[in-house]
Design goal:
Chain A has helices at about 1-10, 15-20, 35-40, 50-55, 60-65, 70, 80, 90-100, 115-125, 130-140, 150-160, 175-190. Chain A is mainly α. In chain B, helix 11 (about 230-245) links the parallel strand 7 and strand 8 (about 255). In chain B, helix 2 (about 15-30) runs parallel beside helix 12, helix 4 packs across helix 5 and helix 7 (about 120-135) packs parallel to helix 9. The chains are: A mainly alpha, B alpha/beta. The complex binds iron/sulfur cluster (2 copies). The site of one iron/sulfur cluster has 15 residues of chain A, from helix 3 and helix 4.
Chain lengths: ~190, ~290
């Protein structure tokens, strides 16, 4: 595995690297599993939170960086509240996402989460403020499920929570400076 | 007093009822919300998941704008906006290298002077429960509510930095001061399914459906929430609860600011409670609140 070689050259193991960046002592987890039991999204994850810690311990870097699990954690902190050691699982998840990004590791097929995130950010980059309805329509169109949520959408429309104007995205005055943030980050990352 | 106000994208869209009632309730209590001019999206969970620097920059832009407008406090009614704005501030504080990078990205100065507050803090800390109670004109007598906080208002604890991460009480105190009966229940801080509402609606429906079931078991008339995303997701939960537990097994979800505004004597016509997906009027009428 190429990445493991790179890490060895840096003189740190995967475990040490994750511990240093997340500030969490992965090796001290009791493996009691309470984090996974409490996590509202473990059913969506391909690897349960406590197993992630175990895999870090054993240096299984590549499957972790490719996993859907690390992109499914929303940082709700339920795991920390449940953990007898007060372990901040979301910090570890965040660290793994950062490592995946830095190493250019793409996720394996996900349940729409990554593609949704990117559509969301495209929308923000274009309009400055998220156009909720536009995003919903675009996501469903891309997924070929035009009618999904149509009942809820219609109810919101008839109740007046959503108006005709919401169907037409507006560019706010904020669009230009926000667009520049996106562009400059791309440049910065190209430089590094 | 004046405070900076960051409505966020939802409150300009599907969360209008929250926006209107939040501004109204604050004004009645002498807190004047001033919307931050040119505010932009905080990036929410997608930015956080995709690119940490982007996430910090998108949020920090709004902090810098509020600071430039001279605000000491920036109020973010949406739980997710609150969490992301506050996290960005914490990350930049004490990290000069990151601060410089952020200033370059957002093209604005930022000194870390503005304090991010959620809406519960406005009523509990800025107004104060006793002052609030004194302004109640039409107490919500007989109305039985359960208070729903969800995750991001109180967790991660080091970001939220307020109330208890598992058993918070600030919303309970606000509702009690408004005259409602706050019932004990176990789903106060359970997660509603958050940003998976588009990608995995079945997961959201199940998570929120279980929350609705607990509200029913507690014997509540209404669920009271403090977040536009939770409000939307709990609606998915209504459908799930009906399907799994039979017809009639549901109840309206309203924003706490709507009930608070009613208790403060605001006319229901000034709010937009009719727009709720599950109409709260029948139960409010039955309790002679509207
Ligand atoms: S923070 Fe992440 S891992 Fe922890 S409970 Fe929430 S979603 Fe699960
Ligand atoms: S709850 Fe804490 S100690 Fe238990 S497995 Fe999860 S992280 Fe480890």
């Amino acid at each position: 595995m190429k990445m493991a070689v790179d890490l060895a050259r840096e003189g740190t193991t995967f475990l040490e690297q994750v511990e240093a960046r997340s500030g969490e002592k992965v090796a001290e987890c009791y493996q009691c599993g309470k984090c996974s039991g409490g996590c509202p999204f473990s059913s969506l994850m391909d690897i349960a939170p406590n197993q992630i810690l175990e895999m870090i311990y054993y240096g299984l870097e590549e499957p972790l960086l490719r996993s859907r699990a690390i992109r499914t954690c929303i940082g709700c902190g339920t795991c920390e509240a449940n953990c007898p050691a007060g372990f901040k699982m979301y910090r570890v998840m965040e660290t793994l996402r950062h490592l995946a990004r830095e190493k250019g590791v793409e996720p394996k097929a996900d349940a729409g989460i990554v593609s949704f995130n990117r559509l969301f950010l495209d929308n923000v980059a274009r309009f400055g403020r998220l156009q909720e309805i536009g995003l919903a329509l675009e996501y469903n169109r891309k997924k070929g499920q035009l009618l999904r949520d149509s009942a809820m959408g219609a109810r919101m429309f008839f109740k007046g929570m959503v108006g005709a104007a919401d169907l037409f995205p507006r560019r706010s005055a904020t669009a230009a400076p926000v667009g520049r943030i996106f562009r400059k980050i791309e440049e910065m990352e190209g430089r590094e | 007093m004046k405070v900076g106000y960051y409505p966020g994208c939802s409150l300009h869209g599907t969360g209008k009822a929250y926006d209107i009632s939040a501004r109204t309730a604050m004004k009645v209590l002498g807190v004047m919300p001033e919307e931050v001019a040119d505010w932009s999206c905080c990036g929410s969970t997608p930015a956080e998941c995709e690119n940490p620097l982007l996430s910090t920059a998108l949020s920090a832009r709004n902090l810098a704008l509020a600071e430039a407008a001279g605000h000491e406090f920036l109020v973010a009614p949406c739980a997710a906006c609150f969490s992301h704005l506050k996290k960005a501030g914490l990350e930049i504080a004490g990290n000069e290298k990151l601060a410089a990078k952020i200033r370059e990205l957002i093209e604005l100065d930022y000194q870390g002077q503005v304090k991010v507050l959620n809406l519960l803090q406005v009523f509990v800390d800025l107004v104060g429960i006793d002052a609030l109670r004194k302004k109640v004109k039409k107490p919500l007598t007989g109305l039985r509510v359960v208070t729903y906080y969800g995750c991001l208002l109180v967790r991660p604890a080091h970001v939220a930095g307020f109330d208890d991460p598992v058993n918070p009480v600030s919303l309970d105190r606000i509702m009690e001061a408004a005259g409602a009966t706050v019932l004990p229940w176990g789903a106060k801080t359970d997660c509603c399914g958050a940003s998976f509402t588009m990608t995995n609606p079945e997961v959201v429906a199940e998570a929120s459906g279980k929350i609705m079931l607990q509200a029913l078991e507690a014997g509540a008339d209404l669920v009271v929430t403090a977040c536009p995303m939770c409000w939307m997701n709990l609606y998915r939960g209504h459908g799930y609860a009906r399907e799994h537990f039979g017809p009639g097994k549901t109840m309206p979800t309203v924003y706490f600011t709507e009930l608070l505004a009613l208790a403060l004597g605001v006319s229901p016509r000034a709010l937009v409670m009719k727009k709720h997906l599950v109409n709260p009027y029948p139960v409010l009428r039955q309790k002679q609140i509207v």
